[in-house]
Amino acid sequence: MSKFSQPSMDSTVAPITEQNGQEETKAVSTARKPSKGGWNAAIFIIFVEMALRFSYYGLAGNLITYLTNDLHQSTSTAIKNINTWVGVSAIFPIFGAIVADSLLGRFKTILLSTTIYFIGMALLTVSVSVVPTHYREAVFFIALYILAVGEGGHKPCVQTFAADQFDEEKPEEKAAKSSFFNWWYLGIVVGASSAILVVIYIQDNLGWTAGIGILAGALGVALFIFLTGIKRYRKQGPVGSPFTMVAQVFVAATRKRRVVRTRQGCCICYETGGTDIEGQPRKRTLAATNQFRTVGIMVFDGVISVNMATFNGFLDKAMIIDVLDASSKTRNPWRLCSLNQVEEVKLVLRLLPIWLSCLMFTVVIVQTHTLFIKQGSTMTRSIGPNFQVPPASFQSLVGLTILFSIPLYERVFIPAARKITGHRTGITMLQRIGIGLFLSVVEMVVAALVESKRVSIAREHGLMDTPKATIPMSVWWILPQYMISGISDVFTVVGLQELFYDQMPESMRSMGAAAYISVTGLGSFFNTAIITVVQATTSGSGGILLGNNLNRAHVDYFYWILAALSALNFCVYLWAANGFVYKKVEGEKPQEGRELIGLR
């Protein structure tokens, strides 16, 4: 139960009850079934995600080839169409998270969205096989955006649903959850790499009908696996719109923006414990933080008090019990909020700068399945006398790098780093993300140097105006940029997944997953914007960047631009991460060796 007190030598104020006519739900932790959840449940969800990623990357990994070769789109148009689709697919999870948290719950949302995804893939199979040529492009893009809707419901829920199988109140399961994120990402990579190695080869050599048909079959398998484990899952019901809680804090703080003291001089609302909601894990009470405020808080007998003359924190004013609140028998949630509510809003606000400073990282990721493929398609790809490696298959190098890197990270890097830093996980989540961001700068520098070498060889052999000719340069020259991409993913992608799960309010974890995914979407749109700007800037010079002739498209210049922007972005990230404050929970000690402030 929440307690609202007004300490005073003369008088007290009776406890304020909730306004909505509903009693706070009693704890239901005793009703949980301990036999559910854990790795026995999470493993089913990991296999489901592997099948879904197999389907997604089997399509996205070679999409630029289909758009340019079969639908005859120009390179720049195809890249923009891919960026738009990837962007929309990554923005829709925000709406999927709202549906899951407010209406359906994560389990039902995953089931519904996976079904929609299967329908979209079936339509895509039809579009590349039996649909007449003059209607094919329209049907193809309709199917693509049906897939985007399915992604929107699946992506924000599936990882969160899997992580929810580990109970944070049990030390052994809490420890397992940290490793879970590494092995989760490893499962994704296995699914994606399998698709890139097998399905893309089938698409290039046997046809797109067979290739996409395999992807549709994989989705059917995913649905079957998900339903097989239905009795093992810990399922959580919807908790209501997360935006309502955020809005209440801002409205209450705005209403009291001019309040400087209460009737008795000092008093705020304090929630002594998290409120348990049926079907949800027990909520934990967040500790007060000094961020977004100017003074500390004094705690006396479970009641938080401050001197209102020096109380200037804007959000904290939502907790002030003024004369109107004190005289009311019911709490108006749009005037008076608990400490937990205010601290949860602070958690969201702290993540925003980190979220924004990771946009350039996803711009770099986009190059691995667009320009890197076009770059490799012009190079010598022969293995033996009769076999040529499909250019899109080189994306599997990212996956293979991750397959080797994650076990090394778990078994070698973490123990070694733990001895140096004292952190339980070796390095903090923000340090992990920062290392990956730095590597993305290195990746673009390496890609620019390799592309300069490729163009110089084309010039030496008089192939500058023969765009379809094979450059006498081994495709293995692009191996380093793919490997660096894989290593940077191990650090930044997994770090972002863990950060946005761990640091979001418990009732907003689906939204946290959606926020992490939306970085990819906005990064794709940002990449399109950069291409548009550089093409408009260079169109009058006679040497337009990213034109159809890759030998004269100055792709190396584009890579240098991305390297410079990524370096600037890395500096912004360091500034944002250095001021970050990790979540603090009442009654919990900080993790061993873990500092509460940013990168330190």
Automatic annotation (TrEMBL):
Record-linked Pfam families: PTR2
Sequence similarity: Belongs to the major facilitator superfamily. Proton-dependent oligopeptide transporter (POT/PTR) (TC 2.A.17) family.
SUPFAM superfamilies referenced in this protein's UniProt entry, alphabetically: MFS general substrate transporter (SSF103473)
Transmembrane helix keyword on record: yes
Subcellular compartments: Membrane
Name recorded for this polypeptide: Major facilitator superfamily (MFS) profile domain-containing protein
Naturally occurring in which organism (per UniProt): Salix brachista
GO molecular function (one): tripeptide transmembrane transporter activity
